[in-house]
Amino acid sequence: MASKFGLAGGIPERRVRPIWDAIDSRQFKNALKHSTSLLAKCPNSPYALALKSLILERMGKSDEALSVCLNAKDLLYKNESLLMDDLTLSTLQIVFQRLDRLDLATGCYEYACSKFPSNLDLMMGLFNCYVREYSFVKQQQTAIKMYKLVGEERFLLWAVCSIQLQVFCGNGGEKLAMLAEGLLKKHVASHSLHEPEALIVYISILEQQARCGDALEILSGKLGSLLIIEVDKLRIQGRLLARSGDYATGADIYEKILELCPDDWECFLHYLGCLLEDGSSWSNGVHNDPINPQKSVDCKVSQLPDEVVHIYYPYILYVVCIFCCTCILLAHLFMTFYAEFDFCNLDVQFHSRISTSLAFVKKLQADTSDDFIRCPYLAILEIERRKQLHGKGNDDDIVEALMLYFLKFGHLASFSSDVEAFLQVLSPDKKTEFLAKLMKTLDSPATVPTKALGQSITIFKIQELTGNLYKLPVLELESCAVQMVKMYCKSLPLSKDLDPQESMHGEELLSMVCNVLVQLFWRTRHLGYFIEAIMVLEFGLTIRRYIWQYKILLLHLYSHLGVISLAYEWYKSLDMKNILMETVSHHILPQMLASPLWGDLNNLLKDYLKFMDDHFRESADLTFLAYRHRNYSKVIEFVQFKERLQRSNQYLVARVETSVLQLKQKADNIEEEEDVLKSLNSGVHFVELSNEIGSKTLTFNEDFHSRPWWTPTTEKNYLLGPFEGLSYCPKENLTKEREENVRRVVEKKSLLPRMIYLSIHSASASLKESVEENGSKSGSKISSELKFLLEHHAKMLGYSLSDAVEVVMGVSSGVKSFEAFGSDEIDWINFAVFLNAWNLNSHEPLQPDRDQCGRGIWHVVDTLLVKYISEKIKSMESLVCSPRVDLPILVQLVTEPLAWHGLVIQSCVRSSLPSGKKKKKGGSMDQHSSLVLNGVRDSIQSLCDILKEVAKWIRGQIDRPEDESVENILSSLRKKEQDEGPGRVFHVLESLIPSINEAEHGGRICQELKTWSALDVARKIVTGDSTLLSQFLNICESKIKSFQALKQQIAPI
Amino acid sequence: MTTIRRFSCNDLLRFASVNLDHLTETFNMSFYMTYLARWPDYFHVADGPGNKVMGYIMGKVEGQGESWHGHVTAVTVAAEYRRQQLAKKLMNLLEEISDKIDKAYFVDLFVRASNTPAIKMYEKLGYVIYRRVLRYYSGEEDGLDMRKALSRDVEKKSIIPLKRPITPDELEYD
């Protein structure tokens, strides 16, 4: 091969080097110059051409690059005597991959391998191509060829991994696992295995076939020595033993692990599972949902399977006897005997095993001197929980165990999350009793101040967790918040010497205060509490600006208040990037979708999609990296992870919403809108997506743990509804419900681009047809497709087309109220808009008894828009009175249905203009067109008027004197401490300021607190509100301008 | 209460509460996946009860001859689980793997010169400041290269501090 003789692609390396250097330093023009002179000397060198195509691609000249690259490929194929080296091929591969033509790259390698069937480098290149294409079968075949060629273990494992991928990610059946096992077995017999990862793969293949016994045999044999870390080997052994049902030996193994790692909680759960012969922790898939895992391990209540037959046998007999009505007395006798005998046996077994576990845990406690090891202590709680689940324990023992755990670890921040699962099994009375006992400990607090503070915080957290806090009456709840904030102020000196980067003692208190204040707002609807919650968190961030928990709470508070611009500011300050965009952007994305901050939304969507698409592009290369480094388990993991992200619901939503955003942004100009539609292939792909969404498996990768209690998922916001007396809002796992919702949203939204496209064409066709008199084929095609989509849309709203028409007509005429639309108001009005567009070009009457075909239902759409928008404006008070929860709907009304309706109008006006091709015969207006244009004129007028109303309302809000608004915000907080109502907490914080001194609080805290100003925060809220409304005003004004221009255009017609 | 196990891709979807901390960098996917593909033994996560992510460590092994060493790229613990010596446990694990499996001479790490709490913690764990790297962080802040010798470096040669600071160009590894 050429490269073996110091040549690169058949060309001396000294000639190629300057080109690569220029490429590496991104001097592409220079690189191209070198490449041209190289090609002058070697015009038929595929490598020289491949280099040129690489440079062209980097310069952004994709078409030229492809053409040169294809040229190089042809030369490579044609010239039989030429060398087929990996360097040329890999250069071509890079270019083809960047041009999204993996098929061509694969073709090159396939050709090369057919020419040089025993060249390992080329085969590896081909394998890599198949990895990029996710062609698992071809990967397997190529790897086997390599294995046969050189007999190396790694190539066999490449083949085995490719087989596993067919099973896990493809359509491969279980028989394939047998094939993989056969291959490995044969290799082991002749060559053994040399890599720990190879052994792991071997074991996993046997496990897949439920052959744990065989796997254990291999692990305990010579191959087991490949695993150097003893604990790793023991863990696998324990799992295999449990899965094979050998619980007794499994328990022994887990004991050994716990002796080596006494703090391993998962291992303890496995140990207990083995002792109680309960395989739940291996089979229930604790890790099934990696994002929202279960808080406690599920366990079967009827365990110890040996006894199961004995238990059920008399029951079966009993039932049979009763059923046959032969001898009831005999049946009862049977029961009494067996029940006493077997339950007694079972009890003894259970008690004995529980005692064993207790003894072992006590031994672990005794052997452990490390104060930070919590597992053997929490283990007591788990044992008590199991006892209770089996009906053998009692709440008192759990409370006692909880108290012991508290006395040892109650000062730790993780205490409450450690015990959360155990609190759940307590009755409400016992929870209260536990809390009372905790309170009593406050009489003799820990001597170390940070410990005492930690314990006090824990008690508040437990109150929150059990829901007892929220059962308090308003006044007491308020006092509780005051107590918390006082504790926070008192704890500040403890952090005086801490580095500003370090978390301060007592930081959680302000998050809890915020939770209580929002609860008070929900109960009383007094906005003062809400503002107070904002102030508390802003105060906390003044002292230390890095606390992300405060930022997330603030983000949601500002979102609910209606000041999304400030919410977005805090979101940005969290620096959420890369994979965090998949897991955490749910905090802001839904609100932004309904906001007028189009520039920011565009960035948000663009960054997220780029991250995901980049990963999809790079993932295969990283998978190949795992192959090369012989980390086979990672190969499977990477492919599965890529699939998981590809099926992300958020990714799907973002793709649809990005297109909808583009359509919203260009809706005032029909030509620009048509360009957007063209780039979206007239919405055809999205219709396909809408049709397919029902059968797609979606993944939900959002991490909801950091969401506040009042909005546990993106779909829920308790504050929007009345106080429900919910004392505790658990963070339910609502994946199923969410899945339905996402499917519905995507299904509906994906139809939008196509419906807009068809509506524009339907409107213009209606006027053209009337001019052409006989109608056109394309017109009727549009009409039938639009009707089909309208039927689909109506179905999604739960109606047939005719019934949906009835609803729309009813609401518009006032016969039905807006309530008929439910929460789908935007979808309903969109439906009306598209219905009008369809009707313009339809020969079918909308309602059987009325002849409306061909003229549209302009007045219906106008009335709906005008009525609905006016209602929303009226419902919104000034920001200082209540949160502007209706603002997102108002923004959506203007930027979606009104905008789409505007496009239908623009289309009509354009088609009726006497210019260019659209010039009408004789220039006179026929009756049909005239009727349509009258509707258009009225519509323009109505929309202009209502938009002016919106603009007037916005100006009214913006033009309010800033000082007045600021004063209003602050006035709700100016209370003396002893007064009831909002402001008590705020008062505690404000009175802290004068008492702050360097000696007690340290220089940094003093310095930071000097910058605190509630006035500044209030001003920031008012300014943020103005910023947001100004953006909305710009949108409205642009639309008004566009409608006014249309009015002028249409006037002379 | 810690189950320390190998980090997997799915953990990337669970570590938000750790990575939202301002000092914890969220790298791009190819960075994490390169570590997973090449040095899976050096990338571990600590799980707490309820399967919560408590923290994680990522690192690698590299170098030649007597420079063959383990490197800590990132070690981080969620706020809820701090002050429980979890970072120490994670560091010990990486050191053990470098020492026992890969037979490295030392473990090293870089830390911002201003990050006093972290420097103090590493010193407690037996690390010494080997050298200062001028403007290592984004061309602005100096970094400190801290090292801890492993059993293979019997004479502890690897940790004898350099007398002069170096520039990032002089670093042997990225």
Automatic annotation (TrEMBL), chain A:
Listed A to Z, the keywords are: Coiled coil, Membrane, TPR repeat, Transmembrane, Transmembrane helix
Question: What highest taxon heads this organism's lineage?
Answer: Eukaryota
- Where the TPR repeats fall, as residue ranges, is 231-264
What are the transmembrane regions? 312-334, 553-571
Q: Which Pfam families match?
A: NatB_MDM20
Give yes or no: UniProt keyword Transmembrane: yes
UniProt xrefs under InterPro entries: NAA25_NatB_aux_su, TPR-like_helical_dom_sf, TPR_rpt
Give the coiled coil ranges. Answer: 653-683
Question: Would you tell me the Gene Ontology cellular component terms?
Answer: NatB complex
**Family note:** Belongs to the MDM20/NAA25 family.
Q: What is this protein called?
A: N-ALPHA-ACETYLTRANSFERASE 25 NATB AUXILIARY SUBUNIT
Q: Which organism is it from?
A: Salix purpurea
UniProtKB/TrEMBL annotation, chain B:
Instruction: Describe the family membership recorded for this protein in Swiss-Prot or TrEMBL.
Output: Belongs to the acetyltransferase family. ARD1 subfamily.
Please provide one cellular component term from the Gene Ontology annotations of this protein: NatB complex
GO MF terms here are: protein-N-terminal amino-acid acetyltransferase activity
Domain N-acetyltransferase spans what residues? Answer: 2-151
PANTHER family reported for this sequence? N-ALPHA-ACETYLTRANSFERASE 20
Give the species: Salix purpurea (Purple osier willow)
Highest taxon in the source lineage = Eukaryota
CDD domains, A to Z: NAT_SF
Q: Say if the entry is tagged with keyword Acyltransferase.
A: yes
Record's InterPro entries?
A: Acyl_CoA_acyltransferase (IPR016181), GNAT_dom (IPR000182), NatB_acetyltransferase_subunit (IPR051646)
Q: What is this protein called?
A: N-ALPHA-ACETYLTRANSFERASE 20
Query: Is Acyltransferase there in the keyword field?
Result: yes
The record's keywords, sorted A to Z, are: Acyltransferase, Transferase
One Pfam annotation, family name? Acetyltransf_1
